[in-house]
Amino acid sequence: MNDLMPVAVFFGSIFTSNILLANYLGMCSFLSVSKEIETSAGLGAAVIFVMAVTTALNWLVYNYILLPLGLDYLRFIVFIVVIAGFVQLVEMIIERISEGLYAALGIFLPLITVNCAILGVSLFMVIRNYNFINSFFFGLGSGIGWFLAIMAMAGIRKKIAGSRIPRGLEGAGITLIIAGMMALAFMGFSGMINVT
Amino acid sequence: MLSALLISVGTVTGITVFLAVILVISEAFIANYGEVELTINGSKKLTVKGGRPLLGTLIEEEIFIPSACGGRGSCGLCKLKVESGAGQYLPTELPWISKEEQGENIRLSCQVKVKQDMAIRIPEELFSVKRYQTKVESIVDLTHDIKELRMKLLKPDFIDFKAGQFVQIQVPEYKLSDESVFRAYSVSSAPSETGTVELEVRLVPEGICTTWVHEYLKEGQEVTINGPYGDFFLRDTERDIVCIAGGSGNAPIKSIMLDMAEKKNPRKLTYFYGARTRKDLVLPDEMDRIAQSLVNGKYVPVLSEPSDEDDWSGETGFVTETVANFLKSGENTEAYLCGSPGMINACIQVLTDKGVPEELIYYDKF
Lengths: 196, 366
Known about the structure:
heterodimer; A: mainly alpha; 69% helix; B: alpha/beta; Elongation Factor Tu (Ef-tu), domain 3; Rossmann fold; six-stranded antiparallel β-sheet; elongated
């Protein structure tokens, strides 16, 4: 088992190994939804919640079902099923209990089911041999990191909305370049905490 | 080997089945909103199954709200006023709803789910909107780029519409479109012809529906349409009527004139039709005959670029100029315009200059 402090894993996954900017996972919704700050905040919050909970759930499934049976090679398919089932269940519950929460967050949940960052976090947790507490904080931290990244991107895109961008670079083009520069900036954190 | 296979398949199946069972149970308890009451326009009450989007719930009750995208929230057409029971606006609605509309509780009916008793407003005319199975009776060339499409209604075999309204044709998937789409066309036949619907379709290069009608549709083929829609129809007043159209904008005007002729409507009507050359005129002889059959009607075709072989002795120039010459004072006039946005905007300018009250200028832009 990896014997890092949970707090190190938590901050490390937000900054030094940001799931989006250091690993480039979860790009598709990052590019398409980051047009507006409010929508980005809703999606980001949904990612934080789902990542934290599914990582913990998948840790339990992996360590108590797959490992004892020697089936760890099936983790991809099992993790995907767990994430999809969980997200759908949560959407149903949120829609029932809170209208405000559904409008702010629930509407994005189906988008997240297919977000590769969520699956990625569960797989990293296995590769890095985290214990349960660390897995939870790793999921939570990665979600917060993703939230920060998309909020920063939404802010920048709002700022450049009126700028004159060469036609060939409009939309996804300029967004990818900005994401690349942000990734370079986040590289400045690398080596401060090692989460692997 | 066999036991390893059984264990792995069994585990994945077990986990999947477990999750599926949880979902089925929660679907039955959490997502079950039971039966709810839908109150339409304050009087009509329907008991429906809750939990589904408003648009689909209404379709099941045979109430059709115009929608082009089929409920994906990408066309913004299926707006309805929801007086109570809709909850707050969803992010998927907001791109289509303006600030003023938010104040009036206008919602996108394909996004709002019916979860509790709900009170909604539906324009009265939408109640007569139905889906019709039809069969193509004839397709005839009216000009080099406009075809007349006549469809016999099969089921239901009767349509009740106001002259000037439009229907939507459902174009199936074919070479130009990977999904079924709806396109709107004005009805050109008289409302008294309740068993057939006649449209005038102008070929637009690369147009999904127009290409389909012009090049793929054959006589005898079955077509689904729905309608009637629209508030472009003759108002019941005593005023003189000016109609101005261009291109396939002839269709609703023809329907209005046929209707007036049948009802022996005594109002004065002048119909200006703008085209480039003689070969662009839609049914000039028939339109003239219909105008003659009115109590007080006149058909004025206007050519902007008559060619030499046209041998044209009628009005020339832009239709707006002719209207300005003919119309002395517009104070006792109301106008019906159908054509391109450019033409309509120019006509509104001329008509208001002549004193036609702006709120009495009705138009269909396409």
